[in-house]
Amino acid sequence: MSEHSSPSVKSPPITSAFPFPSYYNREPFFTLQPILNTQKKQLQMWQELILSYTRYHKIYELDINEYIKRGSELFNNEKIKRKLSQETIVAIFNEIVDSGYGEWLDKDKSRALVWWRKPDEWASIIYQWVVDSGQTDSILTVWEIQKGDDTKNLEFHEINTNILMKALKSLEKQGKAQIFSGSENNLGVKFFSTH
Amino acid sequence: MGGMFSFCGGSARKDQISDKDKAVLELKIQRDKLKQYQIKINLVIQRETEIARECAKNNKKQQAILALKKRKYQEKLLEDTDQNLMNIQEMVSTIEQAHIQIKIAEQLKQGNNALKELHKEMSLEEIENIMSDTQDAVDYQNEISEALSGKFTQEEEDELMAELDQMEKQQLKSKFPEVPNNDLKINVNLDHVLPTKLPSSPKSKPIAAEAEEIEVGIEEVEASSKPTKERDRVPEMAI
Known about the structure:
The structure holds 2 protein chains of 2 kinds.
Chain A: H1 36-57, E1 61-63, H2 64-70, E2 76-77, E3 82-83, H3 86-98, E4 102-104, E5 111-114, H4 119-132, E6 139-141, H5 142-147, H6 161-173, E7 177-181, E8 187-191
Antiparallel strand pairs in A: 1-5, 2-3, 4-5, 6-8, 7-8
Chain B: H1 19-57, H2 61-120, H3 124-148, H4 154-175, H5 190-193, H6 207-238
Helix pairs in contact in B: 1-2
């Protein structure tokens, strides 16, 4: 994984203008509840919070240990002096992965992808842009989809390479695109008009 | 990296990637690299500017000038890359345009062939035959139309008759004034108009005498007309 996967990993935000929900200010929210039904509900609420937080900051990939080390606001509420333990965070992310909104990137369960949009959703957004901008049958580099001047104002500008490749693979399965590699393993995509 | 993207081979639509596509990809990869290079140069320019400003503030004139010279050099590099970028973009556009033109030429050729095939199926002689046949049919149709024109169906005729009846009735109505419907109650004393006795004129003869005169008159007329016939016959009867 060289230049393609790393650029979209952001350092964790410490504080931000993100509008946290009211339950973020309740102490029991930060302790994993022993009663199973309550715990299930709690995990779901955390999943919702994490997905909307990562969507707000356009975070595609995060390193749990890094977030704990930096004391990011996401898992650490300074106001009520409560923070999530590493085990609880892992439990929450297990839930997220099980519900199909993310993926673990390592065996140690530290780095994870969060899909506040699923790869298939990204696939249709990107394909729609290609069609609307008249770029079917032309060649695009993967880099220009992520970083090009033409995508600067689009939602998928600076998209995480891992998720982008999943989206492109999905388009390939649908017969709407073909990924191929050029020199030095640089990747290109040819998009097709659907017949 | 290689492991992750190894799925690229063996895909169903691999055949759709032509040499032209690969050439365009290489050019675009080169363009991406130049853009990344520009990002780097811009960062260097920013940094040299900051250094120059810092040195100027601290009265390190020589170092400030050096930093500005470095910046100038980077700016020149940036201009060169701009030129290169433009050349690449031009090349990509030219390839894409040529590709489109080839496709158009192919399609025109196909269209031309299709047209030729269609022409083969229909000779000029055939068209002429068809056209003259068509003219005959048109003439025949006109004849039929002429023969039929002026004739109406029974229904149409009944309608016309009904209309005529209606018109006649209306005309009759307008000729005579309406008969009043209400009972007339007028008492006219006829005594004033008609005298009970006819006035007797002194000159006039009694009716019986008058009748006698008329009878005599008739006999005279009859007598004057009969004798011509009787006079003709008499000699014969006398013999």
